[in-house]
Amino acid sequence: MRERDVAIAGCGVISAVGHGVEALRAALKNNTSGLRPDERFAGPRFQTNIVGAATLEANHHNPAHALASFALREAISDFRRRRGDETLNPTQLETPHVVSYNVKPDSHFANLPAERIGLVLSTTKANIEALERLSDDRPCSDSARRHLQPDRLAADLAAEFGARGPVQTISVACVSGLIALMQGAKLIQRGAAAAVLVVGVDHLSAFVVAGFTALKALDPTGCRPFDRDRCGLSPGEAGAAIMLVRGDLAQRPAIAIRGWGASNDANHMTGPSRDGAGLAQAIRAALNAAQLRADQIDYVNAHGTGTPYNDAMESAALRTVFGGTCPPVSGLKGMLGHTLGAAGVIETLACVLALQERLLPGTPRLSHAADDTPLSLVQTPRAVTKLNHILKLNTGFGGMNGALILGSPS
Amino acid sequence: MPNPSVTNTNTVTSADIAAARLGPRFGRMDLASQLALLAVEPFVEYFDSVPRERIAICLVARAGSLSTDAEYWKGRDAAGGPSPTLFTYTLPSAAIGEIAIRHRLTGPGLCFVGGSDELLAEASDLIKRGEADGCVCVFANVISPALAEMISAAAAATAHAFFVRRGEPTAPNLGIAEPAPRS
Questions:
Q1: What is the ipTM of this complex?
Q2: Do A127 and B64 touch (CB under 8 A)?
Q3: Which helix (H) or strand (E) holds B4?
Q4: Between 20 and 30 A from B55 (CA), which of A58, A110, A348, B4?
Q5: Which residues of A are catalytic?
Q6: pTM score, two decimals?
């Protein structure tokens, strides 16, 4: 591992395909879709009720807090298990609303001082349940009201989990998760923290589903990334956490963040550029930072929302960077839905599992690949013998683009 | 490598909006984006001194997009549903997109929600790391009177902006107001 590399030391997740990392691993192997009808979004107010919902306690007042807490708890348990400090009790993963702990925060990180642990929260609308409740004069818990300002959610999560180092809240549309991972890595590289908990969270809300309905951006039958008949996205919800540590503190072998890049299309607030130039700029910056050639990328995990313009733009960007030899590419939003602020973290987490399993994930719900997509599009998962570097992409409203490269243990 | 240098800060308030002449698109934006865009205007001269793909935008949205969120959600029961235009601005980072479009800045974008502590440090870090050669920095604080009561904070409508670029170190007066008290 290179001196400046930042290692991935723990993962936790709750999503439409279940509670815990093993549920996501199984879904990746089986190409499972977690999209299904949800009665909360039935009726003419919404374009569709097909969403990627996580199983939460009904009528939860603060779902973002619950999702983030669940993911953080599993990530820290994973970190401790890898260090031999703890045997994870599977029953701990059955109650996503629980936010009390049996261990003192100081003991979470073994011999890592709490002052050297940071937390970066990635979200777009973690606070919106409280706004909906207060607007409708419905009951609203004190914590939900407090978390109307998402930086307070980050501060409370840091306090609950014993992270007393730098705390940041990142909100950069659907690129938030990748930018948060970049921020976590930067905090470690510049010595502000020895480890950083990066947690991405967004929950399903009438606010968001109505907004995408107003934009006519939803696929009534559920999203079909890169499909010739794709016509929109499917909202999803998730909490996903990745614990980053300084390379020399990682248990070997460790998967590492090798480089990243970000850019802006400077073109349109909601639509991607047609030529993919902005995303190509971000990919090239990531390759440069990772000191890799394009032909050293073994797999691309795309943003792949399932909207006609996004998927076409991504395909154009990949053609620009990789020419006629694009590595295998697939997208996971047909499995998880579009989890917005959590997307970059949960999809990166899926890439970590892909590296562990030497597995190219498929593209759930893809039936017929569109003509303009790369020929290397992976429809169903397949094992490979060589999988060293994965390029993860996300794009978002406001023309945002992000690219992150993960490397397997060398 | 020389430390990043910082321009003086430009501060605008809602009182400056009416006199702004930034084209028809400006009128369709939410207040936070309008303030951010207006605050950045004096720094246009710097944008020609750096390749525009090497200029980053770093935004701190003190209260996220809560005021716009509340305004958008008021339209939930309207015929045809809430406004798709307003929905676009229910992202705290929306102002980054508007600044990028107006000035054709294609470098990285970074948006924090909360206090202004990170702004100069993160902008300087982007430059020191070589991810950008210049960075437009904006601190926006928009809390509508209706929202102020909801979150126990003072109403506000201001934006402060400055520009960071490679150069000799300076001691800027950032002029950024203290964040609203936290409950």
A1: 0.93
A2: yes
A3: strand B4-6
A4: A348
A5: 174, 303, 338
A6: 0.94
